[in-house]
Amino acid sequence: MPGAPTELDDRLLGTSPADAGTDAVRRERLLVPRQRTVLGMPERTPAWQRSYVQQVIAVDAAVAALAAFVGFFARFNEAPADLATTAGRAVVAVAVLLPVMWVLAMGAFRTYEPRFLGVGSEEYHRVLTASLAVVAVVGTSSWAFDLDIARGYVVVAFPLAIVGTLIGRYTLRQRLHDRRTRGEAGQTVVAVGHRAAVAGMARQLHRASYHGMRIVGACVPGGKGTPEEDAELDALGIEVVGSLDDVRHAVTSVDADVVAVTACPELDGPALRRLGWELEATRADLVVAPALTEVIGPRVAIRPVCGLPLLHVERPELEGVRRLAKTTVDRTAAAVALLLLSPLLLAVAVAIKIDSPGPVFFVQQRVGKDGRSFGMFKFRSMVTDAEKLLVDLRERTDGNGVLFKMKVDPRITRTGRLMRRYSVDELPQLINVLLGQMSLVGPRPPLQKEVDAYGYDMRRRLLVKPGLTGLWQINGRSDLDWDESVRLDVRYVENWSFTFDFMILWKTAGAVLRGRGAY
To answer: Per-residue pLDDT for 164 more than 90?
Structure first.
């Protein structure tokens, strides 16, 4: 009978003819055609996402046009007669076409796809690759057709376009993050997996609200359970909307943008493949969270072997030439910073002496690489008998259960409160960096009592030098709880790279200026 399911259809769908009746609905779902797309986005893409992509395109075109104009003006302002030459006409053509070439190249390298926009470094990596491709095409064309495009134009216009594009995208990204912290421009998520895994994912997404993902429902084995079974999810505001077989229905009922599958034995390869087919008739994207967590970036790659997408995980770089280079960069940068900041350091030292009696520096024993103790330097921000006063204040802690912290600590001096807000009291740690005891970027330098409380996983923090700044500095500082602080430190150890360090240093400046979590 024409159009009836065949035995081949059943094999492709992972069913047998005997199952045809029970799987009729699923077969119907799988045979629904894909959605149409507009500019590479599904037709039902949220309005805010479309608007954001349009803004990115407009900024890219405007930056390229500005760069073309500045390069043109710089090259021909002093010698307008050169415009009549062949090289001059070639430059005019490149200047006129540059905005178009720029946007087309960005599109060709998929920098406008929503999945790459707003978070992560992949967007910037693709922008740089696309920019270099444009430079290569212009250079190759100039050589092939003997156009002799003026080098003065190229040296000005293209670097300006690259830097301007990165700045423009960064600015748009910050505006997007601000909207997301206000609960706007987000994506609704249906989380799939066991209850504990869904709850863990929800907590991580809540901590990183700038990603804009909010779990609005969960599909768990067996579906909705007893109040006791669903208590953890209920406390997080997550409703169980179905079982593992109800994902597509759940996506439709809550109008979800994303289906996030946690590590779940019930959802093996064939089951995930069928789920992907079912979701083709919706606007929801499918993402899978592997069981291996806290390993990101260049350490992870997909290796297709015999049709299997194997997740290849490189060893963390704990020793070797790159670590030696990091130490060299750290010590050199610390020496230069101490020299440049010496007037500020001297002024702070004078202010401390005037404000309260006692030494300028506070030296505290911290635990460094391989568990070795060292004296960490800080500007003194408290009164000299702060340790004695701690006995009476311990019950009033605002800390994370291990460390004592108070948002309004009476032991802190007036100068100390200002120093702490902008982390000026941490600057003497540049001396520790110069001595090789610390790094510019690394895990937070722990106290011995913290190390004594470490479990096996936490001790990986001691495989590298502690840092003057780190992920803990740019993710809330004193507002972090103990588990989150340790998790960030372990993530840094597992994923260290120079690019990661530069990103942390860049974000540290913003965190310090905002003063969030500093007390």
So the answer is: yes
Q: Helices (DSSP H) in 267-307: which residue ranges?
A: 269-279
pLDDT in tens, 270-316: 888 899 999 988 889 999 887 665 666 667 777 777 777 777 777 77
The amino acid that residue 244 corresponds to is L
196 C-beta neighbours (distance < 10 Å), count? 12
Neighbours of 158 (CB within 10 A): 23
Q: How far apart are the first and last CA of the chain?
A: 76
* Mode of pairing for the β-strands spanning 300-305 and 285-288: unpaired
Half-sphere exposure of 149 (CA within 13 A, CB side): 25
CA-wise closest residue to 262 among 220, 308, 214: 220
- C-alpha distances (whole Å) from 41 to each of 110, 214, 283, 284, 371 are 11, 21, 10, 12, 51
The 3-state DSSP class for residue 292 equals coil
Residue 122's pLDDT band, with cuts at 50, 70 and 90, is confident
Q: How far apart are CA 423 and CA 417, in angstroms?
A: 10
Tell me what the mean pLDDT of segment 19-27 comes to. Answer: 44
Let me know: does 418 contact 351? Beta carbons within 8 Å. no
* pLDDT at residue 144 greater than cutoff 80: no
How are beta strands 467-469 and 439-441 bridged, if at all?
A: parallel
Rounded to whole angstroms, the Cα distance separating 445 from 405 reads 16
CA distance 76 to 152: 9
Structural domains present in the chain: 42-181 (no CATH), 186-291 (3.40.50.620), 321-514 (no CATH)
pLDDT at 5 over 50: no
| Neighbouring C-alpha atoms within 13 Å toward the C-beta of 180 | 23
Q: What pTM value is reported for the model?
A: 0.73
